């Protein structure tokens, strides 16, 4: 039997939809194009890392290790960023400015991948695996720079403070300005 309370609550409350999507693109932080670019960044950095791992001997191991670190970092963190931005998980993480994080990370990775690729290209054993890793390093670098350029073109620099209000002292309401100007001599 339905009580009076059941009738009231059943007619006034709405249940939350149960068919929540886990993959949501586009969002305010990730467009379809940016999602595709991030997927290509993940793929190229993964291939660069895997091919570099296949290298069995190195004549100068410092550049190889630097390239390994950068390619692995780019692969893992770009994949993490892609997962966070393409799912509702980004709402549960305590980060308020995803555009600033994405912008800073993308330019940082682009510069690091560029440096690691140059250093590894300049000092390697000349094997086909090393050259292939360098090629994918440069390809990943290009995609990171494309991502940065697209972000800059669409949204500008998110770290800059944008003021929408005038900064002069006379911007207050008219009665307040009159009170200040009369010095209480009314």
Description of the molecule:
This protein has a domain at 44-157. Helices cover 65% and strands 0% of the residues. The chain has six helices and no strands. The chain has helices spanning 4-12, 32-54, 61-86, 98-122, 128-155, 174-182. Helix 2 (32-54) runs antiparallel to helix 5 and helix 4 (98-122) runs antiparallel to helix 5. The N and C termini lie far apart (73 Å). Residues 29-156 form the MARVEL domain. This is MARVEL domain-containing protein. The chain crosses the membrane at residues 64-89, 101-121, 133-152.
Q: How would you sum up the major sheet?
A: none
Distance between the termini: 73 Å
Percent strand equals under 5%
Overall pLDDT level: 83
Helix/strand/pairing category: mainly alpha
Give the total of beta strands. 0
Element order: H for helix, E for strand: HHHHHH
Give me the number of helical elements.
Answer: 6
Radius of gyration: 27 Å
Write the layout of secondary structure elements.
Layout (H helix, E strand, L loop, with lengths): L3 H9 L19 H23 L6 H26 L11 H25 L5 H28 L18 H9 L4
Helix pairs in contact: 2-3, 2-5, 3-4, 4-5
Subcellular location: Membrane
Membrane topology: Multi-pass membrane protein
Keywords: Membrane, Transmembrane, Transmembrane helix
Provide a short characterization of the protein structure.
The chain is mainly α and 186 residues long.
Which features does this protein show?
186 residues; mainly alpha; 6 helices; elongated
